[in-house]
Amino acid sequence: MANEPQTDDQQGTLGQAFAAAVDVDLSKNELDQSDIDRLMSDHATGFDTPETVMQKIANSTIVNYERLPMLDVVFDRFVRLFGEKLRQLMSANLEVSIDQVSAIRFGDFIEQVPLPCLVSILNAVEWEDKCVAVMDHRLVYTAVEILLGGREMLDSDTLEVRTLTSVERRLVTRLMTVFSGALSEAFTPVSDIAFNVDRLETNPQLAMIARSTSASIHARFAIEIENRHGFVDLVMPYSMLEPVRTLLLQMFMGESFGRDNGWKKHFRDQLQRTEIRLDGVLAEMEIPLATALGWKAGTFIELNKSADGSADLLSGDMRLLSGHIGQSKGQIAIRIEKNIFDASEEQNA
């Protein structure tokens, strides 16, 4: 029964199990302070305190990835553009593909960068923010060798990992300039943005452009150059993408971005065929109502306008054009000299 008292053997068994859980030796007649601390600690009860729970949440490396559909389209465009530019630069057979796109804390990525390394800080001019790109050392040495005229492909196992010389760093800067140019073109359908190489760092800690806990997009691009494999990591903090976040959240298929070119052409053609009525206003004047009521057939109205004066063309209540009055083939004509509608639009802007 639940209310029956426990025997000494049962209590001893429970005590031994509890002591084993908290790593306390009950064979000793006396407990020292460390044993007491373990008995009274949180893990002895099996429950986490609120402070412990909050610390686990704050220190969690899991980042919720807000899916940005248009960013996938941008990366697809980048793969194509970067591949074309690299082929032109290196005159080599190569392939570029997307290896993975995920979310990561910026500090976690920096800690994972192997040494020696060369971290490129890219400046997003219009957004006034930065992102980082890291090129795999295997890809760096392969690209440098090809740019210097070599074609001998070394095995990855025998590849010497060393710091780059000043000449090699300039070549890497050239590669990253191509990288940033392709990235700028890839973002063109979403926003006019220019990426450029701000600087290169050999120490990843000097490339901390954001807080270590900042959520970031991590895109890895795999590159194969003449049977040699490497990759480029691009890390963009979510804060950098905030100016175009609403655009990146939209669901568009392909690169037309929701525009129906057929309907656009039809709409433009129909507008150009639309007929409008234009009224030529030779003069305007203000007169008393009694004078207007006294007009009758045969009354002469002086317009105070010369034969070669100016006149306006109106469509409804909107003035569109103005010009000089004249004659053409025995009829009154107006030679257009000014577009009033465009001038008023510029003033309102």
From TrEMBL:
Keywords: Bacterial flagellum, Cell inner membrane, Cell membrane, Cell projection, Chemotaxis, Cilium, Flagellar rotation, Flagellum, Membrane. Its main location: membrane. GO terms for biological process: bacterial-type flagellum-dependent swarming motility; positive chemotaxis. SUPFAM superfamilies: CheC-like, Surface presentation of antigens (SPOA). It is found in: Cell inner membrane; Bacterial flagellum basal body. Transmembrane segments: none annotated. Gene3D superfamilies: CheC-like, SpoA-like. Pfam families: FliM, FliMN_C. It is a peripheral membrane protein. GO terms for cellular component: bacterial-type flagellum basal body; plasma membrane. Residues 270-339 form the Flagellar motor switch protein FliN-like C-terminal domain. It comes from the Bacteria. One of its GO terms (molecular function) is cytoskeletal motor activity. PANTHER family: FLAGELLAR MOTOR SWITCH PROTEIN FLIM (PTHR30034). FliM is one of three proteins (FliG, FliN, FliM) that forms the rotor-mounted switch complex (C ring), located at the base of the basal body. This complex interacts with the CheY and CheZ chemotaxis proteins, in addition to contacting components of the motor that determine the direction of flagellar rotation. Belongs to the FliM family. This is Flagellar motor switch protein FliM. It comes from Iodidimonas nitroreducens.
